[in-house]
Structure formats: structure tokens, C-alpha cells
Amino acid sequence: MVKKFSDQNKVYRKIAYCCLSVTVIEILMEYFGSCLCKGIKFKIVGGFESFYLCHCRYCRKDTGSAHAANLFSTSAKIEWLKSETEIKTYQPPKSSHVKAFCANCGSALPNLQMDNKLLVVPAGCLDTELLKIPDAHIFISNKANWDESLEKVKKFERLP
To answer: What is the pLDDT of residue 149?
Structure first.
């Protein structure tokens, strides 16, 4: 059971689990991020309604990985703090998929979609710690064939 109580920019969550009650205070509403070369920096004010790991063919292709990890908000606002390099966007023909990226280093960046009503933020470009966990894997019918039982694969702190 999760109850939310708002008090200015603080969200108090009362979590009841096995007769144990814990209050967690999260300072939400402000996230900072950048690209790999630090030529672009931004601030996001507001929360995220959803966090999806997308396995569609476009997200797999534009991340070069098993899935994209994107945050979505209809209420958060983005402020560009530093723009030393150009932000480019790419949209495949006949698709609603949009990717924004730094023209210098290629890092994925936030972008506005649906007539600027939806902010899409690649989770990996945030410099602020994100407390939200993914809500779901989506487009799993397009999942890579090697993306199974990955929790069983050996893990190393650094290159082996």
C-alpha cells in the first residue's frame, strides 16, 4: 500500500509492508542532466508519470542495446542550461519515434513530442540520482533473442 502526501516540493510516502511502516522522504521536482561531452546541460522541473524500458526495434537500434530506458512527463518543464553544441533530432520516416542527441558526442537527450505536450527523457542522461524504478518493459515482442535470463550472466565491477 502506498499513500502520497504533498507538502511543497516534498513527497512523503507511507509504505506498509509486513506490518512494518516506513516513511520515505523524496525531494522530487528537480533533475539535472548532460551529454557525455558536457557541451549540453539541462534542468527538468517536475515529476515523471512513467518510466518504460522499450524493446521496440527503433529504441533497440538508436541505443545499440537491448532496450531504451525513457522517462515520460506531461507536466515537467525542461530548461537548457548550456548549449555549446547543437542538439539534433532524428525521426524515421512514417514513425512517431523521435531521438534527440548531441551533435558532438552523440549522447541521447530529452525531447518534446506530441506538439510539446510530452517530455521524453532518456534516463541515462540524468546526472541527478533517480529514485523511480521502471514501470514496465514494453514492446517485448520485439525483444532481442539474447535478452533472456541476463541476471544469470557473470557480473564484474570493471572489465574482466
So the answer is: 87
Structural domains of the chain sorted by starting position, each given as residue range(s) with its CATH number in brackets:
29-146 (2.170.150.70)
Low-confidence residues in the chain, pLDDT < 70: 1-28
CA distance 51 to 14: 21
Query: Looking at this protein, which amino acid is placed at residue 103?
Result: A
Identity of the amino acid at 127: D
CB 45 within 8 A of CB 77: yes
Q: What Cα–Cα distance (Å) separates residue 63 from each residue in 53, 59, 95, 104, 110? A: 12, 6, 17, 16, 14
CB 40 within 8 A of CB 62: no
| Cβ neighbours of residue 79 closer than 8 Å, sequence gap 6 or more | 42, 43, 44, 45
97's CB contacts (< 8 A; 6+ apart) are 56, 58, 59, 62, 91
- The closest alpha carbon to 23, from 10, 36, 39, belongs to 10
